[in-house]
């Protein structure tokens, strides 16, 4: 062998050895030298992505060559989805800042922002400053958002007035109802969402309280989960007087959609006669859009929508999603993300387990965790899943 | 030269070259391979510091060999100082989490926590979870905190009642007055503070809105600064009716302490006849304790304290510190930290300059920045320092 070749082999061997030792022992070395970071650095920081002109709603804060990046780390086909108004900008920035710090700066999952009117330039710029991921901004088609023409407005108004009298939150709001119907049946139909299977729903002004040292998306994928939650409260009965009756009717009409080993036991304490009002709080969701796009949920949503209950009552997307997950998924396909410290006013899930809390460097107060407070359904979930 | 020696020189040269290229180009590589991080990794993570038994109030989350660490990065002789009650735990955790994320995880400056009663174990543990720095917890001696015996309580109560009638914030609170007097004259005298020269004062429930990509302590040191601020509002006149008169008296009695080129022009719009109520908002301070420990400030504080005005009126530590800085320091020794996005309810300083805002990845709203709002004195500061 030539002398230069022997030098070369020795040097390469030493480099490789050092590289792997550092990658195994030092998180930040691993970050610094991952293919995606080196690619980012070589390409420089720019908001002008190739093809940006043909995709005016697409902002790249850094120009990620995603095929190159994917060589380095396995990622799910997943996105964050955030419904926000322009006036929610400060709260949205806070939420994105926190999920980036606690999770996404290591993963660079993309974001889809949705609004019933165009996002301002200021909104796009301030959001793009918070993340190196792809950020896309979409406008929701009117027919996915506004109260349909066939809704009897007089009848709808009568119920809104009644809820206002009862002091029910958002009782008089039409736009809140638009949002609930949109989140129930349309967010996963948006053009920008079509390329993704998995999503993590985030709202403005939420808090992520712990480092998330695993990838919830690939966890879902690897463990055959379809729906993940952190908080499960009781619904206000006044907002859904006829919902349970419709669910019962649907189940009779479509027994073929009802899963074996489903979670309906979580929804009723008397074998299905009454709804116990338990639901997953859908302002946090990590879930599989194939579930919402499948025939069972399509039939369910269309049936519910045809009753007008989103406007004649005040059905939330939380009970609608939750009842669907409980009917159409196996209970093992629904996952409680204990590790994810999460707050949405007025409730917080803070991991109670000392090891989880410490490992996550959580900044929440365990004594204020909602899990086993009076309004929480967690104890029902524990019963269903055999945790107690 | 032997063959092995030639191999060795080549390999060392290549390693060194690669190392410096990566350090110069990759922040996170630089972090991963700094002496302090490698030292930390080699020593492992433990809360049991050598000598912990003899220092029961000292918590090390990670066992930093500080002399080894100092090889790698120059640090000032500086500490954070946080006055908090046990009931402020959640807000204190939030503040520490944010300063760590935005600044201190790269620097590991220590913390001193002060309280008028012992901190709970829960307080110490939750704080220590937020930082790898040294954290020390001290109890303030009663004579540094409580209303002195020689204060005429009847007279003090009369004024408190008057401020309550006028709806002045904390008007009726004795503990607020204790705190203001403590922050004016005693925090830098605490035992745990003795080993430090520089401090950064932080309160529970404050926000740091931007990455702080420089070291404000070494900046102060290198640029001969003694006092740094971010927000400068007007004081409530009702809380300090006699303060300006005392300041004028003190200046007459002690002309030897008054600095040339001082900042007193910031404090009066009529050449010193009246106080314009401008002051630096002292819930944020980065400053030099040698300034407070020097004869000028000692004489000033002792004089003010002897009048009883901390209790007979409701003097804040903010105007007291500010007036002292304006008298005893040169105006060039007082620094406005524009880059440090900072919020303390109800005011926020958010950098207005586009480049500073972007570089800092700030999550505040520039339109809500306090700098040039009606209650801000910034315009006076700009005039004094020739920025406008």
Please give a structural write-up.
The structure is a homodimer of 388-residue chains. With 388 residues, the first copy, chain A, is an alpha/beta fold. The longest helix of chain A is centred in the N-terminal third of the chain and has 23 residues. About 11% of the residues of chain A have low confidence.
Rg from Cα of chain A: 23 Å
Largest interface: A-B, 33 and 33 residues
Q: How much helix is in the residues of chain A? A: 40-55%
The DSSP helix count of chain A reads 17
**In percent terms, what proportion of residues of chain A is strand?**
5-15%
Structural class of chain A: alpha/beta
Low-confidence runs of chain A: 23-57, 60-67
Report, as a whole number of angstroms, the end-to-end distance of chain A.
68 Å
Within the largest sheet of chain A, what's the order of strands? Answer: 1-4-3-2-5-8-7-9
Form type of chain A: globular
Number of strands of chain A: 11
Question: What is the arithmetic mean of pLDDT of chain A?
Answer: 88
Describe the sheet with the most strands of chain A.
8 strands, mixed
**Element-by-element helix/strand order of chain A:** HHHEHEHEHEHHHEEHEHEHHHHEEEHH
Name the quaternary structure: homodimer
Pfam family, one (chains A, B): Glyco_transf_15
GO molecular function (chains A, B): alpha-1,2-mannosyltransferase activity
Family (chains A, B): Belongs to the glycosyltransferase 15 family.
Protein name (chains A, B): Glycosyltransferase family 15 protein
């Amino acid at each position: 062998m030539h002398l230069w070749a022997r030098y070369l082999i020795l040097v390469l061997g030493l480099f490789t050895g050092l590289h792997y030792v550092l990658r195994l022992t030092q998180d930040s070395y691993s970050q610094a030298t991952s293919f995606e970071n080196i690619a980012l650095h070589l390409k420089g920081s720019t908001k002008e992505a190739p093809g940006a002109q043909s995709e005016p709603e697409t902002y790249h804060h850094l120009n990620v060559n995603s095929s190159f990046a994917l060589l380095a780390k396995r990622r799910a086909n997943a996105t964050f989805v955030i419904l926000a108004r322009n006036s929610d900008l400060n709260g949205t920035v806070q939420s994105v800042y926190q999920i980036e710090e606690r999770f996404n700066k290591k993963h660079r999952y993309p974001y889809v922002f949705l609004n019933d009117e165009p996002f301002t330039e200021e909104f796009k710029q301030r959001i793009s400053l918070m993340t190196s991921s792809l950020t896309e901004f979409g406008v929701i088609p009117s027919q996915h958002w506004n109260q349909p023409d066939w809704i009897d407005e007089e009848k709808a108004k009568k119920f809104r007035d009644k809820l206002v009298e009862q002091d029910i939150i958002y009782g008089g709001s039409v736009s809140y109802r638009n949002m609930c119907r949109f989140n129930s049946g349309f967010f996963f139909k948006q053009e920008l969402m079509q390329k993704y299977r998995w999503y993590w729903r985030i709202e403005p002004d939420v808090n992520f309280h712990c480092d998330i040292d695993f990838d919830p998306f690939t966890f879902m994928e690897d463990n055959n989960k379809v729906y993940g939650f952190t908080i499960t409260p009781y619904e206000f009965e006044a907002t859904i007087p006829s919902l349970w009756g419709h669910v019962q009717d649907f189940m009779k009409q479509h027994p073929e959609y009802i899963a074996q080993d489903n979670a309906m036991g979580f929804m009723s304490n008397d074998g299905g006669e009454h709804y116990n009002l338990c639901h997953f709080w859908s302002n946090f969701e990590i879930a599989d859009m194939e579930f919402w796009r499948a025939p069972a949920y399509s039939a369910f949503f269309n049936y519910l929508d045809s009753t007008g209950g989103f406007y004649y009552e005040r059905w939330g997307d939380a009970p609608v999603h939750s009842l669907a997950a409980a009917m159409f998924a196996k209970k093992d396909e629904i996952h409680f993300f204990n590790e994810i410290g999460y707050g949405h006013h007025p409730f917080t899930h803070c991991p109670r387990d000392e090891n989880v809390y410490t490992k996550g460097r959580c900044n929440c107060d365990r004594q204020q965790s909602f899990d086993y407070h009076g309004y929480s359904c967690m104890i029902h979930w524990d019963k269903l899943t055999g945790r107690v």
